[in-house]
# Entry
Amino acid sequence: MKLVSYLHYFFYIAWNWNPILASFIIYYEIKGERKYHINTIGENELKSLKARGIDISHFHIYMPVNYYVLEHLMQEIVRFNGNKTFLDIGCGKGRVLIVAATYGFEHITGVDISEEFCDEAEAITQRYSSKNPQADFTIVNVDACKYDIPNEVTTIFLFNPFDEIIMNEVVNNIIKSQHRCSRDIRVIYAYPEHKSIFLEHGFVETFCLKKWNHFEGVILHLVGKLTPQTQNMASS
# Structure
């Protein structure tokens, strides 16, 4: 069954991009899935959401972040990880949640609009917690626009899950959370298509990973002390 999933994913990437890229991604998919003992590979066009009448026009097709990018970003973020609280907005099947736990985060929340994905994320995080009780997972089935970011969250992960309309809402929610409880917040943003939105709202890029034209990720830092401009954005 796993071999079929790898082959399907390979041909999907090869058809939409190219075989060399597909080979690189599948190599890291096999390596990562075996390392973390999970099954999160594959793409999903979100048809189940559409069937339930949910507007998916602002959401991108589900594809899990590549392990090559994810692990490089995690290796960098743990240098700043004073707080052990982690939030993945658009968590999908839970890949990033398990990797975050492996890298030392203890209070880990995944948010996704898909009930199907949340069920899968719940299953793999429960399996992980049964062997690693120090990891505390919470899965929330909710639209990212409607999710109030907890005051204790200092690290947020995004894998280009939405268009700029939704991303603007998410950034405003981050700022509102910081307004309620001033603290440094770092955003791990893989494939940062809408990075400019963060920069316009006062975030500073502190790390950039780029390989070829297909693998990119940044870490963005919002400093704890609010400026008058940021306060106005948060209250609007």
Summary: The chain has a mean pLDDT of 86. The domain at 65-235 is CATH 3.40.50.150 (Rossmann fold).
